[in-house]
Structure formats: C-alpha cells, structure tokens
C-alpha cells in the first residue's frame, strides 16, 4: 500500500447502502462444476501443486460437524484460487494438510469469519501468514448484515444457497448437494474481498482492516479454558458448593464418554439434566433415573456411570468442593461499580457514551472500535500517568491496535480525567 492510500477515516464516513435494487441472481453451481473430493495422498499432491502454481489470493473455508461430533475439527476444507480452480479436500482421509499450507505460505488467504475456521485449519497443519477476513471487513465498512450470504448478495448481487450450514459434515460419503453448497462458499469469496477492499479504501478504513487482519493472523492459539464445566447452561441456578461438585463430576464424566465415542457432549447428556441432578442430589440410581434427561434410552445405559459421578460429588470432603464463584480475571461486573467505586462507575459511563457516539459517526460497531473489556479495565484501574502517552501505553498493553488508539485516545483520556482516579 502506498502512503497516499493510507488515508484517515473522517467523522462523516457513510455506511454502504442496502437499498432495494435488482433481485439477486441465484448462484446454483460453481463455474467449473463441483470438483471431486480429494481423499488420497496422490490427489492431495496434485491439489497442492495446482494451488502452488495459481495466482493471487486463495479463498479458504472449512466445514465442521458442530452438534454432531466431539470437538471442532474440520470435516471438509474448500479452496479456490485463480489458475487452480476449486478444490474440496477431505481432512479425515488426508489429516495432514501441512504440505498444502506450506505451498500457500506466501499467499494471502481470504476467509469469512476467520476466527471460527482458523482453529480447525490449524489442526490440519494449515496456518496463514496473511489473511483477509470478509466478515470483519464488512463490519468495519458499516454493513448491517455481515453473514456470507448477505454480503455476497448486497455487494456482488448473487444469492447463495445456505441450506446445509448446520449439516453433519462428518457424513461419508458427502451428498452431492452438500458438496455443491461447499464449493459455492468459496466461489465468490475473492471477488467479495476485492469489492470490500475498494469499499474500505473509499471510506479511509483500509489500513484499519489490515491492522485487524494482521492481529488475527499473528494471534497464538487460544489456551484451554479453565474449569470449562462452569459454562454449563443453567449454572445460575446452582448456588451451593456441593451442587457445583455434582455439576463438575457429571460434566467430566460426560466429556470422557463423548470424547471416546466422538459425539457431541449434548447428545450424551444435556446440560439441563446435569443441572437437575445437581439441584436434586439423588442418592439412588432410581431417584436419578426419575429426573428429566436420565430416563431416556441413552441415559439408562449410562445410569450407573451417572450415579457414580453424583455419589463422588456427594461424598467429597468439604475442602475438595469447588468454590462457589470463579475468581474473575478482570474488573467486577459494571452493575457493582456504583457501590464499590463510584468514581470508576462515572469514568465508565463517560467512556461508554464517547465510544458509542464515535462508533456511530464512523459507521462501525462499537466493539470493533475498541473492545468493551478494554474500556472496562481501563476505567476500573486507570494508569497512574493520565497523559495521552500514558493512556496510549495502557491501551497498547490491553492489545488495542494503533488505529483504535488513534480514534479513541482523546475521548478515553477525557473520560479518565473527568473523575478522580481513587
């Protein structure tokens, strides 16, 4: 990018129009037809050679089997590049796609909602050095709807079929209509990228987007969640430590079974059943079987395991019971600020109002202008140095990108100075 292209956005940037126009053209099949699924080492070598010899960015997508299988692995990887056409690769038959990833190492990857697909692509050995995220580009450009179908329709004038997004992609063989859908997901992705790049350039936001894309590409893999069982739906009903122990034991037992069977944990035992068992604390297998979720056929097969898990929890020594609440890693919930620290509450109110107003002027979501967590942390514990450089340094430490600091520094600095720090 030249210096002349690195223009700044102004407060009068306008959101793209989605006024009703000509009816979108249905996109029913890929231009070159639906390719055969690559499922052999020889086929993968041919795809790798073809894509290495291609030109320009490569469109990449992945299909998972969320809700059907354990984990978030990829069950189909789709690629398209000028000069290479479209490829559909089976990462079950070809689990190591490292050679393909290396062949595209110097190529910009175009993905839609990149953070959703990058973890499962990383498991196959495919990791981009550079990327363009069309969903994030749409957010920064001010589009109110940023799903792939909506973006292709509003920007390019084509209607994509989206009927198989929630399918069980671990199915083998994959039905032809699913493969056609999968191929179409990358058919126009590079065209969409080019149109969005032009839109962002016209709005003076292209450099902002490039900074965001670099941050995504350079981000390390997310660490495993601590105490993932605490995310069980309905946990707000569970208030006692002994009940928490029941949730933990049942959750861990369910996870072991789901992993072993390679099925979604929710298909083994529902979250609602776990919570019911925690609240009821049944002491016998018969009492457990009478609870919702444990009387079905699958529940009965594992009834002894579920009962053993509940018994472990009910007989744990007091000192081994989980704490009622996990220590928060950051500030307390904002609703508690007014009582605990009125000055911090005043700072947060001023900062939020400023961020919201400026995001509206720039026609982008406020969470993309600056993350709400960053604003909360900054207002709860302001830096000792409230100069512009001191606040900027704090924002950098929280991971804010240069463009975000440039756009929010004046209003956040003013918010921190408007109320006493202590």
TrEMBL record:
InterPro entries the UniProt entry points to: 3'-5'_exonuclease_dom (IPR002562), Exo_C (IPR041605), HRDC-like_sf (IPR010997), HRDC_dom (IPR002121), HRDC_dom_sf (IPR044876), RNase_D-like (IPR051086), RNaseH-like_sf (IPR012337), RNaseH_sf (IPR036397)
Segment forming the signal sequence: none
Region (Disordered): 1-29, 317-338
Any single GO BP term: nucleobase-containing compound metabolic process
One MF term in the entry's GO annotations: nucleic acid binding
Superkingdom field: Bacteria
Name of a matching Pfam family: DNA_pol_A_exoN
Residue stretches making up the HRDC domain: 240-320
Record protein name field: Ribonuclease D
């Amino acid at each position: 990018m030249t210096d002349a292209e690195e223009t700044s956005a102004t407060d009068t940037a306008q959101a793209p129009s989605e006024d009703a126009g000509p009816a979108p053209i249905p996109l029913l099949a890929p231009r070159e037809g639906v390719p055969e699924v690559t499922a052999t080492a020889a086929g993968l070598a041919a795809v790798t050679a073809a894509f290495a010899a291609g030109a320009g960015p490569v469109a990449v997508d992945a299909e998972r089997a969320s809700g059907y299988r354990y984990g978030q692995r990829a069950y189909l990887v789709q690629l398209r590049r000028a000069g290479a056409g479209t490829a559909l690769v089976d990462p079950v038959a070809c689990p190591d796609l490292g050679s393909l990833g290396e062949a595209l190492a110097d190529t910009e990857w175009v993905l839609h909602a990149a953070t959703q697909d990058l973890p499962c692509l990383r498991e196959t050995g495919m990791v981009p050095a550079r990327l363009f995220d069309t969903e994030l580009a749409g957010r920064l450009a001010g589009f109110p709807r940023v799903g792939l179908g909506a973006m292709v329709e509003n920007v390019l004038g084509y209607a994509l079929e989206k009927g198989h997004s929630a399918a069980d992609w671990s199915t083998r063989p994959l039905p032809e209509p699913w493969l056609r859908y999968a191929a179409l997901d990358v058919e126009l992705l590079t065209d969409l990228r080019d149109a969005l790049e032009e839109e962002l350039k016209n709005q003076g936001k292209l450099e902002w987007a490039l900074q965001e894309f670099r941050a995504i590409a350079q981000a390390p893999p997310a660490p495993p969640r601590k105490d993932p069982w605490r995310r069980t739906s309905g946990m707000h009903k569970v208030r006692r430590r002994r009940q928490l122990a029941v949730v933990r034991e049942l959750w861990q037992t369910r996870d072991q079974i789901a992993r072993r069977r390679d099925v979604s944990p929710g298909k083994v035992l529902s979250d609602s059943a776990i919570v019911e068992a925690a609240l009821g604390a049944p002491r016998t297998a018969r009492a457990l079987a009478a609870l919702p979720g444990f009387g079905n056929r699958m529940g009965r097969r594992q009834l002894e395991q579920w009962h053993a898990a509940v018994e472990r929890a009910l007989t744990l020594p007091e000192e081994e019971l989980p704490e009622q609440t996990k220590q928060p890693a950051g500030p307390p919930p904002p609703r508690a600020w007014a009582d605990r620290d009125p000055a911090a509450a005043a700072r947060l109110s001023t900062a939020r109002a400023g961020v919201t107003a400026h995001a509206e002027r720039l026609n982008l979501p406020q969470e993309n202008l600056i993350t709400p967590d960053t604003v909360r942390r900054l207002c709860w514990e302001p830096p000792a140095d409230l100069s512009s450089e001191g606040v900027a340094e704090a924002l950098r430490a929280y991971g804010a990108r240069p463009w975000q600091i440039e756009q929010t520094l004046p209003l956040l600095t003013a918010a921190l100075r408007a109320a006493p720090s202590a």
